[in-house]
TrEMBL record:
It comes from the Eukaryota. Residues 50-69 have a biased composition (Polar residues). Residues 1-72 are annotated as: Disordered. This is Uncharacterized protein.
Length: 89
């Protein structure tokens, strides 16, 4: 067995300093296998089950990216000057 093939000996300098599961955790039989929390039902994420900030059901809207709704700003016309004007206006 080589050093690289033995995870108990091989050091991972970066990963050992991170708050993630370590290879040594797999050797601990008291740790349960599986998810850390039960899965969330998809129904909790569907828009028709959620309310918007106004209290009405949220709806999904897709804006078409056809030429009438899409513009490229080649001349930089959409840039705004947010600095106060020097003329006091």
């Amino acid at each position: 067995m080589t050093l690289a093939s033995n995870p108990a000996i091989r050091r991972h300098e970066i990963w050992q300093a991170q708050p993630v599961g370590q290879f040594r955790d797999t050797a601990n039989p008291s740790l349960p296998d599986g998810a850390t929390e039960p899965p969330t039902p998809l129904s909790k994420f569907h828009a028709h089950n959620r309310l918007s900030s106004s209290g009405t059901p949220a709806t999904w809207m897709t804006t078409p990216s056809s030429p009438t709704n899409y513009v490229e700003d080649d001349e930089n016309m959409f840039r705004f000057n947010y600095l106060p004007s020097s003329t006091g206006q």
